[in-house]
Write the structure tokens for this entry.
Amino acid sequence: MNLFHMLFEQDDSFFIFPQEIVFGYIIRRGKMRIKNERDFKYISKIKTLFSRSYTAEGDSILRKIKFTSLDANSNSIFFQYEEPIPYEVVNIYRHKVVDGIGKIVDIAELVRKLNDMLTLPPEEMSCDYIKWLDELLDTEEYEEDDEKRRYITENETQLRGFVNVFSNSYIMEVYSRLYGKDISLLSGDQSKIIYKLCEMKYINDMGMVSKI
């Protein structure tokens, strides 16, 4: 998974792509490293920047960064950040669940499917969800992918459980509690939430959760 980050001033008079940057999610803080010493000296005087973070597929989030400390020896900057989605979104993330789901369907596709189904009447949504999940786990749909067929055959019960756990958490915690069952509001934040989930998976995959 590739994530990209562009830092810029509010008036767009300056922008830079950091050499490294990580946004922690348990606490909204992070760290970055700037490759060019001149750029490091310039932004260290600014103290506040904005970051546009995005996936290769185009899901993105805009965040405000406030520097908390600097390390001139390594051109590193530590910071706190603000982002335009409820903090509690992170509570639905379970790495084992998301990682398992990702072996058969992209998490972005799952979120978009759930949001689409949330526009339906409850009974129709339930039927559509069951049908979609059955099709997702139907090995005949993967005739040209022997590895995926074998994985589903060996783990179907667990995979069904993973998708159900994530879907229930998303509907109950995000849609119902955080967004007050306002699907228009939730759909407006869809790209930001997808990006956040992808970023949390990346941080876990890289073993960086406890290092931020």
Summary: The first strand starts at residue 3 and ends at 8.
